[in-house]
């Protein structure tokens, strides 16, 4: 049966890239449709009328929205490398840490990068505390998913790749090996992992993109 | 096999009610522990060190935090009785999407209604009703968000129903006038024992809201 899989996204967005990683992990062939978030296509608005955001996965004409929801859908629909663990408690933990990354870490990092001088010190401290908490979840493993990439690793792609680029742009030394030895090692292993490496945008292109915008990356967050 | 299930929550919490409804639907015996959020218990701080919030579900000593995550956990552990999520992956994705929408929108919009006045409150009311209308659209002509069966999205939204009287009274408007289908849905849900057991009396919630307003200096 010919399957039709389309992904509506933005090349620079970590949320879009999560979906590409998940699809590649499962060996699913798909068509990528680059969206212009300033001039949203009719199709995007049709498939995501509620939020009008990317990424949107279209599977045999059925749209699925919200990156974490899409990741779970991909895991349940296609066999292959499991993204979420099998055990219900481990699954709950994976969902918790992915939510922690999205609800806490990422906003704190944006705030630390783009705060004005007075707020910046506090914002940096908060971001560091949250990253420390996340780092502890590695628990001596190579990845958050254990020996292989899992749900939390995919969700942490913002920290794995985008964070370094943003810190370079705003000239902030937040993520040092001294402060975060385990997280830095994870980042190293993460970006060198083949499925991730093949699904990262070119670093210099991304650097130029955000330098030009000088504001937090949007993508899924409009 | 003895399962030890404990739920840490506070009685007005819609998020705690979600977990209660799920446990009741599955017929799981559990111990409910009322927390004092001003003097958080050592148990709460130990079980949810990250957020220090309720609800926390503790299963055989292991904590699960965040109500939507706890409800999914309950559904997966006690999977043989009353499934809350559909079996089809696409329907599951739709259910998770709507639960996420409810999480992102309803609480904050509702909160604006009872914590603000004047122009801010009018904005809050409009936002709140707009979100409820979107949900009404998603419900369509089905008896439940899950279709014919009560499910995950119903569990996520119905606890807000006991807060509607407070929103309406503080905001001086009628939710039923704006969203009659949604109110009909809520009343239908309330006929289920799991829901009627878990939702407190709306008047009690309103008394709580008045007390809270005084305490945080909103009166």
Describe the structure.
The complex is a heterodimer of chains A (about 220) and B (about 220). Chain A is built from ten helices and four strands, in the order E-H-E-H-E-E-H-H-H-H-H-H-H-H. The relative contact order of chain A is 0.15. In chain A, strand 3 and strand 4 form a beta hairpin. With about 220 residues, chain A is of the alpha+beta class. In chain B, strands 2-1-3-4 form a four-stranded mixed β-sheet. In chain B, helix 1 (about 15-25) packs parallel to helix 3 (about 65-75) and helix 7 (about 160-170) packs across helix 11. Chain B is globular and about 55 Å long. The relative contact order of chain B is 0.13. In chain B, strand 3 and strand 4 (about 60-65) form a beta hairpin. Chain B is of the alpha+beta class and about 220 residues long. Chain B has two domains: about 5-75, Glutaredoxin; about 90-215, Glutathione S-transferase Yfyf (Class Pi), Chain A, domain 2 (Up-down Bundle), CATH 1.20.1050. The chains are: A alpha+beta (about 220), B alpha+beta (about 220). Chain A: Belongs to the GST superfamily. Chain A: It is an enzyme of class 2 (transferase). Chain A: GO terms for molecular function: glutathione transferase activity. Chain A: This is glutathione transferase.
